[in-house]
Amino acid sequence: MPLRKHLVNLITSPAFIVIVAFLVRMGFLVHEFHVYVEPILRDNLQFGAETGSIAASIAAGRGFSSPLRLIRTGPSAWLSPIYPYLLAGVFKLFGTYSYLSNIVIHTIDCSFASLTCWPIFAIGKKVFGRATGAAAAWLWVVLPTAIFFPIIWVWDTSLTGLWMALLIAVTLNLRGDDRMRDWLGYGALWGIGALINPSLLPVLPPLALWAIWPLRQQFVRSARLAAASATIFLVCLAPWTIRNYVVFHKFVPLRSNFGLELWLGNNPDVPDTWTPQLHPNDNMLEAKKYAAMTELPYMAEKQHEAFTFMRTHPTDTMRFFFHRFANTWLGIWDPPSDIWTHLSLYYKLILVSNMAFSLLSLFGLLFMQRKKGDWGFPFASVLLLFPIVFYVTHPAQRYRYPIDPILSVLTMYAVGCCISWVAERLSSSKLQPQASASSIG
């Protein structure tokens, strides 16, 4: 029995799960470097796209600039600063676009993805119990997207996913807390998150409101806590916002590229969801236009063109919106019945697993709303609000990645509910014959 207890404690230990997750990712990374990364480096192709280009500019002493790989341009606010500066530090230490830099940054991303197991465990344990928390963390260890993106994409994806999970875990523990230091820390966490990736911000208002709602009867106290937290949040953003104003002479709080992303998904050439071939990182005509106009006028023009198209083509806009919604949650926008026979076994498995992951997380949310009441609100807020910007612009599975940790918790809760239901049914079916025999006797 002691041995069994020690084994259970080990399996449900978040530290052990994080270590296993890291080893799994590093194992895949070694394999991928041989079959995928080395050929890219031999062909001298950049990695990290806009992130890599900006990081290379920083490392070369040109500042936060030149996001395009096809042409060198001026100052930029294309991305939030934290991850490009992290990558720039790697370039500075280990060489720009070098083989060693690639290994280092992917190892860092694998560390971010592995550490995500910890807040996943904390979220599941807080709301559903230790078993669900551990199960959700183990699901993250083997989840294909949680393995794939850290070892392929040089982007803020893994760090953003870690931060989203951390924010949810902290929010759950902060609810009803009236200590000033905790709310100051909460504001700082959100400020750092915004500087990692502003896509986190749509869920800030509902999560903060849910956390402070139990204190609504103490109006003055809760107002002070909210004001202090908001102040720290704005203080975190201030240096970057001031830098943008000094450089561009316009108010750019975080990022400048929304107009382009909106246009890529809403223009006459869009077939289903977006037009990657028109991206200035892959289209020299657009790259030259971007360089000639400079960043903010170019983005403003693209935003105007996108809104004009959306206003004059409402049917196409709604069709694109629906396709992007389906692509976000299923990984495809065509009806599965139309493409099933054309898919290989590998892609059939990917499609089925992705659909099962999304559907089980939805069922988990529904079960939670029924059994946990108010505790379902932050989960529902994240699932409803976070993807909206990608429905409007353009989708990708890596864009959904930051909420996949939450989906993992909901998925394992749904699985646990189903197992409990089956166990209860089996137990009741065994008891019925015994009850009948007793009544006959």
Topology record:
Blueprint (H helix, E strand, L loop, with lengths): L1 H10 L2 H29 L6 H11 L22 H13 L4 H17 L1 H12 L1 H13 L1 H9 L4 H18 L5 H17 L7 H9 L6 H30 L9 H8 L18 H10 L1 H18 L1 H17 L5 H4 L5 H27 L4 H10 L2 H5 L4 H4 L3 H37 L1
Helix pairs in contact: 2-5, 2-7, 2-8, 3-4, 4-5, 5-8, 5-9, 6-7, 6-9, 6-22, 7-22, 9-10, 9-11, 10-12, 13-15, 14-15, 18-22
Description:
- Residues 437-441 have low confidence and may be disordered.
- This protein has one domain (2-440).
- With 441 residues, it is mainly alpha-helical.
- It is globular and about 80 Å long.
- It has helices at residues 2-11, 14-42, 49-59, 82-94, 99-115, 117-128, 130-142, 144-152, 157-174, 180-196, 204-212, 219-248, 258-265, 284-293, 295-312, 314-330, 336-339, 345-371, 376-385, 388-392, 397-400, 404-440.
- α4 crosses α5 (99-115).
- It contains 22 helices and no strands.
Treating each run of at least 4 consecutive H or I residues as one helix, how many helices? 22
User: What level of helicity do the residues show?
Assistant: over 70%
Order of helices and strands: HHHHHHHHHHHHHHHHHHHHHH
Major beta-sheet overview: none
Distance between the ends: 40 Å
Q: Tally of extended strands?
A: 0
Q: What would the principal axes of the Cα set say about the shape? A: globular
- Structural Rg: 24 Å
Unreliable segments of 5+ consecutive residues: 437-441
Tally of separate domains: 1
Mean pLDDT: 90
Strand residue percentage: under 5%
Q: Give the helix/strand class.
A: mainly alpha
Tags for this model:
mainly alpha; 22 helices; 441 residues
